[in-house]
Specification:
8-stranded mixed β-sheet; Alkaline Phosphatase, subunit A; 13 strands; 5-stranded antiparallel β-sheet; 2 domains
Length: 410
């Protein structure tokens, strides 16, 4: 196999958007000052990507699987296991894992804030430790804090099934009951409902929440599980493509996806997974990893957070910070390093959630045909030479540009 350059994939989480009246019918990418992203577009091939399929809104887990060359319909077993691996929980055969939110509810269990004011840090560590002491007959409970307001719930026991509905209704509504989606999941659904009830009883009068109420902050008085799944068996990216790879991310879900794909997951001081994440620290960590790795994936979550918060101005500000990060990367990598800019999904600010719009993608390298695109944004990229590709097409394209592709046929 011929060896060539290396590749750095910068996943700007949720950076894609739709035109909005608030920005004079432009997208945040079109409004933001981003000379470095535009430089990459001018020196590369550009296109748009249906990360899963046209019109299908990707999750952050399924999108990263696709970007890494896997077919999510074959390997995805639910969001919970990826989140669990991302926070260091090793699942066993038969375990069921859930991604959870600390949330705020009233006495009737109407959800007032799905993120409990984006609680995080030492508060969720202590609250998770308390919840891990809950006892459910026939089921072992493991709770681990994740990024910001998130946590992981792992159920361990006999005859458990991941085929249960979410307790989290995904909007401001009454907390739902978990129901079995297949007959053998009745035990699991009951365990989930029992746990949620106990979580409310444990959390509502906890000193942390009493202090938050006194400070005018929303209490984290319930834990809402969703995304149940069993732990998948995924071929490592090294076995699949023959590349040595690593991941730099602050979000536990992305760490989990990359970890289950066999990538080295590097912890970076200041990589919080939030708006305050240290983008330069991530860039410097990625640059160092390129000394020993063929492929490095970097995820930055901040643009997605601004979108979920419905904040156009903040998203434009984040994009301009991302552009400075791109400038650091392109000014430091070797000339034969391929830089890939893309989003894992669109998160339109006015929607406040993921959409099925295609995302812009730019592949910048010294052996890539320049297609005449002048700017990195949703409209400009659509005119580029890559055309319209799928998420799982990216890795074969990269391997070919790295001179690591295999001939098909004689």
């Amino acid at each position: 196999m011929r060896r060539g350059g290396k590749a750095l994939i910068l996943v700007m989480d949720g950076v894609g958007d739709r035109p909005t009246e608030a920005l004079e019918f432009r997208t945040p990418l079109q409004v933001a000052r981003k000379p470095n992203m535009n430089w990459c577009a001018r020196h590369g091939s550009n296109g748009i990507m249906d990360v899963i399929a046209p019109g299908v809104p990707p999750g952050s887990d399924t999108s990263h699987l696709a970007i890494l060359g896997y077919d999510p319909s074959e390997v995805y077993t639910g969001r919970g296991p990826f989140e669990a691996v991302g926070v260091g929980l090793t699942g066993k055969n038969g375990d069921v894992a859930f991604r959870c939110n600390f949330a705020t509810v009233d006495d009737e269990w109407n959800i007032l804030d799905r993120r409990a004011g984006r609680i995080g840090g030492p508060e969720t560590v202590e609250l998770s430790n308390v919840l891990g002491k809950i006892r459910i007959k026939g089921v072992k409970i493991i709770v681990k804090e994740a990024t910001e307001h998130r946590a992981v719930l792992l159920l361990r026991g006999k005859e458990l099934s991941p085929f249960v509905s979410d307790v989290d209704p995904h909007l401001l509504a009454r907390v739902a009951k978990s129901t079995p989606l297949v007959p053998k999941a009745k035990k699991t659904a009951k365990a989930v409902n029992d746990f949620v009830r106990e979580s409310y009883l444990v959390l509502k009068n906890h000193p942390i929440n009493q202090k938050r109420v006194d400070q005018g902050k929303p209490p984290a008085n319930i834990l809402l599980p969703r995304g149940a799944g069993s732990f998948p068996r995924i071929q490592s990216i090294k076995d699949k493509y023959g590349v040595e790879s690593a991941c730099v991310a602050g979000v536990s879900l992305v760490k989990g996806v990359c970890g289950l794909c066999g990538m080295e997951v590097v912890e970076v001081t200041g990589a919080t997974g939030g708006l305050d994440t240290d983008m330069n620290a991530k860039a410097n960590a990625a640059l160092k990893l390129l000394d020993s790795k063929d492929l490095v994936l970097v995820n930055v979550k901040a643009a997605d957070i601004a979108s979920h918060d419905g904040n156009h101005e903040k998203k434009v500000e984040v994009i301009e910070r991302l552009d400075r990060m791109v400038g650091l990367i392109r000014g430091s990598v070797s000339p034969d390093t391929i830089i890939v800019l893309l989003a894992d999904h669109c998160t339109p600010v006015q929607l406040g959630d993921h959409s099925g719009d295609p995302v812009p993608v730019s592949i910048c390298s010294n052996n890539t045909s320049k297609d005449g695109v002048e700017a990195f944004d949703e409209v400009s990229a659509s005119l580029g030479g890559l055309g319209r590709i799928r998420g799982k097409d990216l890795m074969p394209i990269l391997l070919d540009k790295m001179n690591m592709s295999k001939k098909f046929g004689s």
